[in-house]
Amino acid sequence: MKKFLEILQHWAKRSEAIALHFSEEDASWTYSNLVEELGKVHAFLRFYGVKAGDKVAVLSGNSSEMVFLLLGCLTYNAVWMPVNPGLKQSEVRELIQHADPCLVLFAKGRDKLIPSAWAAMPLESYAPFRSTNLEAASHLSEGGVLIYTSGTTGNPKGILLSERQLLANIQGVQPFLEKGPATIAACFLPLFHLFGVQSDLLGTLVHGGKVVVLPEFDLRQIASLAQAICTNKVNTFSAVPLMFDLLLRFGAAIPFGQLAYCVSGGAPMPPDLKKRFEVHFGTEVLAAYGVTEAACFCLCPRKGIHVNGSVGHPTGIEIAIIDAKGKRVVSGEIGELLIRGESVIQDGYFRDSRNCYLELDGKPWFRTGDLGKQDQAGCYFITGRLKNMVIKGGTKIYLEDIDYFLQGLEEVKEAVCLRLAADSNAGIEGFACFVVRNAESQNSVDAAIIRKKLREALGPDKVAEQVIFLDKFNRTASGKIKTGELQDQLSCYDH
């Protein structure tokens, strides 16, 4: 397998080929320019004594410096560690202390977030260095990334991925995405999460395409986002379902048929939203499934093949589905998804002793904690989270099914259900529904109405013990609902 540096040097032979366009700066970089810029990053890292395998933390949103430092660290054999600049000071301190980077760089105004014990400098500090011949710090090791999960439950985990794992995942999904020199991808997912890094940035550069780097998605900037997509003739991008919904709802002016395809991930894509987006923009949405622990993609649909609700087929990794006893399930039966393969983490979470593997067929498999099934045609479906399964009267209830039902009600804008702690003596489980009302609805809705609709449509076992109304859901930077905050509002179900 070729390394990132060799791949970029290969595409640099096409002297006029554009690798990157930074929309906010209105600046473009050819592959040749990019390789030269990485020489500056290498000189900078070498000057400050960064060695192979050393971690370099970067607190920044989407910017040219963020991208160049990522590529520079990877090709130098250092480890790039992005940190969400929107975190609180205590959260940044926790991550920095846990990872122990040798160098910390920060975007303007973010220096106060960094513990004083660490050597820190502005993001653009590498720029004055003269470009040197690109040479990795050591040929005996490889670079990588250290990504901390967004922590919807309040407990972010470190995931250390090597350059080889990143490339293996990109190559595994290539038969599905079919990227090449004609690909023009917009990247507006935050680069401190892996989805945008792999699906839009690295995945496009590896195959000689052009990446249009934009600021992170912002509802207030939908018009400028759409304008950048039009101006740069973008033909693909990746997003979470909430972003697809907002692009539709606020009338993003993207010409019909310009987008060849889009990739959805980060959360389940509602089939109705997928269909409406495809019809409105004349494109297709590939609703994929992935985890950071596998370097992004695990399952992806093939272009032109639509199986309602399916997340497609394995992207170069092995998938197993097991029951509660650790045995493989039959086709059509729901169970926990296990994964293994070259791109999947082999040694657990970074500096974390918890066991996240299960032995099956004499081999260790990573436990995703997600529930799914496979149909007879080999298509996979994600049905929920293992921790979101409730058993009432011997019946398994998948809370995501309740979510989908509630979100289909005209009176409801958004809904999410969470498991309630079971009474320690009776062992009886329950669940709560968090609901955001639809302000545009003419019908009122309260807890009694929600319970009545659940009972009539789904049966008495699927009636929530608690119904809690909120004005809105707080979300992580990647668009996921902060379920940890919701869990804090729950009390143990009183029988």
Layout: helices, strands, pairs:
Layout: H1 4-11, E1 18-22, E2 27-30, H2 31-47, E3 55-59, H3 64-76, E4 79-83, H4 89-99, E5 103-106, E6 120-122, E7 144-148, E8 158-162, H5 163-177, E9 184-187, H6 194-205, E10 210-213, H7 222-231, E11 236-239, H8 241-249, E12 261-264, H9 271-281, E13 285-287, E14 289-291, E15 296-300, E16 313-314, E17 318-322, E18 335-340, E19 357-360, E20 363-374, E21 380-385, E22 389-392, E23 395-398, H10 399-407, E24 412-420, E25 430-437, H11 447-458, E26 466-470, H12 483-488
Parallel strand pairs: 1-10, 3-4, 3-5, 4-7, 5-6, 9-10, 9-11, 11-12, 12-13, 25-26
Antiparallel strand pairs: 1-2, 7-8, 14-15, 15-16, 17-18, 18-20, 19-20, 20-21, 22-23, 24-25
Index terms:
single chain, 495 residues, alpha/beta, GMP Synthetase, Chain A, domain 3, 6-stranded mixed beta sheet, 26% strand
